[in-house]
Amino acid sequence: MSKDFATAVRFGFLIHDVSRLRRIVIDRALKPVGITRSQWWVLSFLGRRDGMTQTALATDLDLTKVAIGGLLDRMETAGFVERRADQRDGRIRRVYLTPAGNRFLATIRVNIEHAEQEILADVSEADLETTARTMRTIKKTLRSIAGADDTED
């Protein structure tokens, strides 16, 4: 693929369109279990890195500290997460999945797995692997340009 400006812009729009349409499909898959995509993302991030700080969650989810605070308030009230002071610095709040949050995450994964299979039904394993590798490379480059730490996959 040529790296001219028009091609690069179209590629960027394609990424945006795929992401937007995927969000619509995922929202529909989450509706029957009564959870929002933002809540699912919190549970998913904690499923991978339990004990994240509220600030790290806000950054990873591209939310403000106020927005993540309200989201976590609702999720804590529902019994899915709990916030605890950091053992070394009491000003830092860490967020942990509760047993109910872990169980709910497992339920959600069933709905999401079906949606993901449907989304990728017409994509070969080889194409998926190539695309994923390409997207990781682009992500790494973007994180570097943005000055972000590149510790994630």
TrEMBL record:
InterPro entries: HTH_MarR-typ, Tscrpt_reg_MarR-type_CS, WH-like_DNA-bd_sf, WH_DNA-bd_sf. The keyword Transcription applies. Keywords: DNA-binding, Transcription, Transcription regulation. This is MarR family winged helix-turn-helix transcriptional regulator. It holds the Pfam family MarR_2. Residues 8-140 form the HTH marR-type domain. The keyword DNA repair does not apply.
